[in-house]
Design brief:
By secondary structure, this protein is mostly beta strands. Strands 4, 7, 9, 10, 11, 13, 14 and 15 form an 8-stranded antiparallel beta sheet that branches. The longest helix is centred in the N-terminal third of the chain and has 11 residues. It is globular and about 40 Å long. The N and C termini lie far apart (37 Å).
């Protein structure tokens, strides 16, 4: 979806943003243990599994400790831009564009600024990277990143990886993200992972040859900006 869609749908976006203006801002910070929601998957036939956004009204921000083990930095956004908004070339995706920004950072001076159009229920706003520093994730247990949610509402975020020559899809369990800065958000690569058809699998597929990483903001959301920074994989003997 091109950036110009923001102007073509201005009236609709204004109504949606107005309806979100009263969403309470979360101040408490807790570890996001089990959100009690169902897994969100990438495949279009699985969109009915996207949790109802009404369950996100009282989501606090995340403030996790770093898991034990090694960290490998995937991107701190201090150099070139290697990510793209899927909405720029997919008509059913509601990301508008991404860019490196100095407006906020948790690592270095920059972060990835992700602009969202209004996201309908059972839809996604996604962004992806195909230029990975390391493709061997055989010992990786988590993707870890910091997320600054400056939209008017909490969000669900999932991580999807594609591995091997066939780009086999593995989708993590979604994480509920509060309004504000969420630190050390963990996407579990070993538990409650599903393939593109929604079947549970014992971990990410082809983990020694990861080709693409995608973050998907799922469920109904107002238009707005979300910042991602300090994206790592974590595990033993990386």
């Amino acid at each position: 979806m091109k950036r110009s869609l923001l102007y073509l749908t201005a009236a609709a976006a204004a109504i949606l943003i107005s309806s979100c203006a009263s969403a309470p801002k979360q101040e408490a910070q807790v570890t996001p243990a089990d959100s009690g929601t169902e897994q969100v998957t990438q495949a279009s036939e699985q969109k009915d599994l996207v949790p109802d956004s009404s369950s996100l009204r009282k989501v606090p921000c995340i403030n996790n400790s770093v898991p034990q083990g090694s960290l490998v930095l995937l991107d701190g956004f201090e150099e070139e831009l290697y990510w793209a908004a899927d909405g720029e070339y997919k008509t059913d995706d509601y990301s508008s564009y991404v860019q490196i920004s100095e407006e906020w950072a948790s690592y270095g001076s920059n972060s990835l600024q992700v602009e969202l159009n209004p996201v309908p229920q059972k839809s996604f706003a996604s962004f992806s990277c195909e230029s990975l520093i390391t493709k061997n994730w055989a010992n990786a247990e988590f993707i870890i990143c910091d997320i600054n949610n400056t939209t008017q509402n909490p969000l669900y975020v999932i991580a999807e990886v594609q591995g091997g020559r066939e780009h086999n899809v593995s989708v993590t369990k979604e994480v509920a993200i509060g309004i504000g800065v969420n630190t050390n958000v963990c996407f579990d690569l070993r538990h409650q992972v599903k393939d593109a058809s929604g079947m549970e699998i014992p971990g990410i597929q082809d983990d020694d040859n990861i080709r693409t990483v995608t973050f998907r903001i799922a469920g109904k959301s107002c238009a707005g900006t979300v910042f991602f920074d300090n994206i790592n994989i974590s595990g033993k003997d990386l």
